[in-house]
Specification:
about 150 residues, alpha+beta, Thiol Ester Dehydrase, Chain A, six-stranded antiparallel sheet
Length: about 150
């Protein structure tokens, strides 16, 4: 159910008001749905008082995608929740910025195997946000909680 909702939602996410208003756009999703390439334009709508990218927009461009990847690849027998997030600002963003959020198939299979065995766990994923010169302007860490709905503790 959630997988179908997210697949439908992905077609519209670029038009979701917070993304559209901030200039956030999904540029590419691989066919396995294990990688999302996302951009954030630099406009007056996301410029902070110091004339640089607003930190909330930088975080928002990365927010849902690790959870999407896991939900789409693990399926409806698993609960996936954001547990915590951290953003570390490295340098001011003054241009369009880019982020690739990816969990490879091997890592997804390892998560599935582990959660099937122990019932639930948390996982941390990290991505860099880079500018047009490929310089890192921020690093985002996301901690996700994953639980198998059908787990029975023997």
């Amino acid at each position: 159910m959630r997988k179908k909702f997210i697949l439908k939602y992905l077609k519209l996410v670029n038009f979701w008001i917070p993304f559209l208003g901030s200039g956030i756009k999904i540029q590419d999703v691989n066919k396995e749905r294990t990688r999302f390439d996302v951009t954030l334009r630099f406009t007056g709508r996301n410029k902070n008082l110091f004339g640089t990218q607003f930190g909330g927009s930088l975080y928002a461009m990365t927010d849902p995608f690790y959870a999407f990847i896991l939900v789409l690849n693990l399926g409806d027998d698993y609960i996936v929740w954001d547990k915590s997030a951290e953003i570390k600002f490295i340098k001011p963003g003054k241009t369009k910025v880019f982020a690739t959020l990816e969990i490879d198939a091997t890592a997804i299979q390892n998560i599935k195997n582990e959660v099937d065995k122990i019932g639930k766990n948390t996982y941390v994923f990290t991505t860099n946000i880079t500018d047009v010169n490929n310089e890192i302007i921020a690093t985002v860490k996301k901690e996700l909680y994953v639980r198998n709905k059908k787990f029975k503790n023997e």
